[in-house]
Design brief:
heterodimer, A: mainly alpha, ABC transporter involved in vitamin B12 uptake, BtuC, two-stranded antiparallel sheet, two-stranded antiparallel ribbon, 15 helices, B: alpha/beta, four-stranded antiparallel beta sheet, 10 helices, about 25% strand, binds adenosine-5'-diphosphate, binds magnesium ion
């Protein structure tokens, strides 16, 4: 028996292999492929200004970081309020290379994919290190470990001359097959690079989640006594979650460094950690696609807040920066509203739309 | 031949002896029950065997391993072939029945992180093999209708059954069941009794059972140990225990 794999209105499978597939119908896969394709080709038809291109690139970098945070907080249930510091570790790995071997060394300009990978691994090492207390501590105490890391990170960057006291450290333009990537194509080039990274990581994580290496994360979140009895080392599993999350944060940081062609401490503060958390919550904790919705929604919200602040700015005394005041306020409000009314995030709206479409035309 | 031997085990919690000088043997292929009033130390004993607690004194021998050593933690004991169903449900309540059972295959899924990321070839093949193993247990425990249901939403009786199924999925030599029938209705209890019998006979698994329903215990046990205030007050076959004056006193004294 072979079911129609184009228009299935339920779930039928005839082997376990078949049930493993990511896309249960051909039409699902086709729609997804078309969507992916459109992400790659729209820049050929639409010439966005650098300003908006940067906004988009920013969203994509944030998606990678939030994927990491979501694995840690959404899947493994370990809240982190130091995620921006891990992103910073990645960025400062690139900056350190720049300081030590010079900001025009071929390693940085030609071997940048390797540099980005190394930044990810350094992020993983720091992640694992900060996660070490999970052998003994739980919940709030672990949260304090991530907060301390955030504080120590900021302090270490600001007070050390190696890191230029937190002032910008320059990162060079890179070379590609066609030669040096110049100012005009810089943001477009990095759009493609980050997009490819997201696609690779997206599929990687999707795969991970249907194997032991993904299920164990959810197991320690739901019940770590039971996880222990089922043969998982709960402490080690949590350290692994921290490392995984640190890796993604590190890669995001390195991409950020190359994208901005410089690294300064002001992009990796506690405020940014909270924004990452907001993105994960708004997108939907513990869902993969939530990591895509969240960053997009929050970035757009941030633009709106800035616009609003600019428009309303002249009503207030000029020495008062309205945007600075409004930003934390809106984030706080958005987090609270989502936690109260839609704790499963935007991903839940997506789920509802999908299950509706799936049962079409048999609605009820 | 004893599969597991508990020798002179004492467990102390700040001056209180949850277990004092308890010795038991669990014969291979049999059903051994532990009975006794609430607070007698039954769960504590299982906790000592499965590595959650470590006895203050005494040995717990399983093959060539001494499980009383601080070195043994639950995940190591589970690998040796001792599985545990908890008294108070300890399920992964946000996951489906299927995922709960697949998690018990954790140690049998032998592929590495990179193979998992690619999920092609080895990882996918091993996942499918273990899925087949899990399906067999689902069949055995008659959980087919609940396969894709989220565990937290199932009825209490079914959750108890999932708890036992998950322990079975570990593929143990010894199965520790802590009050698997508590809170069940008559029909569910009968099903569970049948499952326990099948586990022993068809799957050749040694069973250690804690249960309050004396009728059931007398019916299915090969050997019974009676605990009271952390002390062993009687042991033997069901008839021997039923006729033991100390046991009768403890049980009637409780009323
Ligand atoms: N972690 C613990 N800390 C302190 N006391 C405990 C702990 N675990 C069990 N006990 C005590 O040990 C005694 C035996 O408990 P338990 O083994 O749960 O009894 P049972 O399962 O026979 O009802 C009780 O008095 C209980 O309060
Ligand atoms: Mg008990």
């Amino acid at each position: 028996m072979s079911a129609n794999r184009w228009l299935a209105t339920g779930n039928y499978y005839s082997s376990y292999k078949e049930e493993q597939r990511i896309f249960s119908t051909h039409s699902d896969r086709l729609i997804f492929t078309l969507f992916l394709l459109s992400l790659f080709i729209w820049p050929l038809f639409l010439d966005l200004s650098s300003k908006y291109m940067l906004v988009i690139d920013n969203i994509l970098v944030a998606i990678i970081a939030v994927l990491g945070l979501n694995l840690l907080t959404g899947f493994a249930g370990l809240i982190s309020i130091g995620h921006a510091a891990f992103v910073g570790v990645g960025a400062y790995t690139v900056a350190s290379f720049s300081t030590v071997i010079g900001d025009n060394h071929v390693f940085l300009t030609h071997w940048w994919p390797l540099v980005i990978l190394i930044a990810g691994l350094v992020g993983a090492v720091f992640g694992a290190f900060v996660g070490l207390p999970s052998f003994r501590l739980r919940h709030l105490y672990l949260l304090m470990a991530t907060l301390s890391f955030q504080i120590i990170f900021q302090w270490a960057i600001n007070f050390s001359s190696f890191f230029n006291q937190g002032q910008t450290i320059f990162v060079p333009r890179v070379y590609w097959l066609t030669g040096k990537v110049m100012r005009k194509e810089h943001y477009l080039f990095w759009y493609y690079v980050i997009l490819v990274v997201i696609v690779l990581f997206g599929f990687g994580i999707r795969n991970l989640l249907r194997t032991r290496h993904g299920r164990c994360l959810v197991a320690v979140r739901d019940n770590d006594r039971a996880a222990d009895a089922m043969g998982m080392h709960p402490g080690l599993t949590k350290v692994y979650a921290f490392a995984l999350s640190g890796f993604l944060a590190g890669v995001a940081g390195a991409l950020h460094a190359y994208l901005y062609r410089g690294v300064g401490f002001e992009s990796f503060t506690l405020h940014h950690s909270i924004v990452y958390l907001a993105m994960a919550i708004v997108g939907g904790m513990g869902t993969l696609n939530g990591s895509f919705w969240g960053p997009a929604a929050i970035q757009i919200l941030e633009l709106q807040v800035e616009n609003l602040a600019e428009k309303a700015g002249h009503l207030f005394p000029s020495n008062m920066n309205l945007a600075t005041a409004l930003r934390p306020l809106t984030f706080g409000l958005v987090i609270v509203l989502f936690l109260m009314f839609e704790p499963r995030g935007i991903a839940n709206w997506w789920r509802i739309v999908r299950s509706y479409v799936k049962l079409w035309p048999f609605r009820y | 031949m004893p599969l597991l031997t508990v020798t002179d085990v004492t467990l102390t919690f700040g001056g209180l002896n949850a277990l004092s000088h308890v010795s038991m043997t669990f014969e291979e292929g049999l059903i051994t029950s532990i009975i006794g009033p609430n607070g007698a130390g039954k769960t504590s004993l299982l906790n000592c065997i499965s590595g959650f607690y470590h006895p203050t004194r005494g040995d717990i021998t399983f093959g060539e391993h001494d499980l009383s050593l601080a070195y043994f933690s639950p995940h190591q004991v589970s690998v040796l072939g001792i599985a545990r169903a908890f008294q108070n449900l300890e399920l992964f309540s946000g996951m489906s029945v299927l995922d709960n059972l697949l998690l018990a295959r954790h140690q049998n899924l032998k592929y590495n992180l990179l193979q998992a990321l690619v999920y092609f070839g080895k990882a996918s093949r091993i996942e499918a093999e273990n899925r087949a193993y899990v399906e067999e247990v689902i069949d055995f425990m008659e959980l087919e209708p609940y396969r894709h249901k989220i565990v937290g939403n199932l009825s209490y009786g079914v959750q108890k059954r999932v708890e036992v199924a998950r322990a079975l999925t570990l593929g143990p030599k010894l199965l520790l069941l802590d009050e698997p029938m508590a809170g069940m209705n008559i029909e569910e209890k009968e099903d569970m009794v049948r499952f326990i019998g099948d586990i022993q006979q068809e799957r050749d698994i040694t069973v250690a059972l804690i249960e309050h329903d004396l009728g059931i215990v007398m019916d299915i046990s090969d050997q019974i140990y009676v605990l009271d205030f952390g002390e062993l007050i009687g042991s033997g076959t069901p008839e021997e225990v039923a006729n033991n004056p100390k046991v009768i006193e403890a049980y009637i004294g409780e009323e």
